[in-house]
Amino acid sequence: xxxxxxxxxxxxxxxLLLTAACSSPQPVExxxxxxxxxxxxxxLVGEGNQPVSDSDFAGQYRLVxxxxxxxxxxxxxxxxxxxLGLGQFERQDAERARKIQxxxxxxxxxxxxxxxxxxxxxxxxxxxxxxxxxxxxxADVARKYVVSYVKQExxxxxxxxxxxxxxxxxxxxxGEPLALIPVDDIRTVDVNEGTPDIVAAELDRWVQ
Length: 208
Description:
By secondary structure, the chain is an alpha/beta fold. It is 36% helix and 19% strand. The radius of gyration is 23 Å and the shape is globular.
């Protein structure tokens, strides 16, 4: 005959408590840009002069950077670190990384044709796409992403630079703003001292 054990009810109670604790939802960190009026619909031009709209990326996270191909030092450094960070995240978690579409939008549509953009972005990441458009289209998408830019005349009509807001946005699967990827900070850190880690950590933090 099995004897009653006074420990059994205690074990059962502990199991129930443990199960309840494990099933309780954990607090979810809110994205810092949640609810911000950033982003929106757009139609631009991609490689091969094909129209590209924000709706083409439905269901994907978007890592969006504004810059231009003739940028002498800031844009290539930013893009290099951003794409190295994305590459690191791809090695850490390929499944989640595949959900991210990296995008560069030009602020210099006069010189940055779709072909020029396509050639430029290949230097940084195989999945990075470059988008151009008419001056009106670029002005519209820049306004929606709260990006300012201004043409600064050079010694000749073609020798100019474009001063612009230095931002990289992480947008969610529905096009909602999630977080800024800190390009200003990472440019001060040597690539061999963990710069891509900062980008990879931010992507890991917000991409589900």
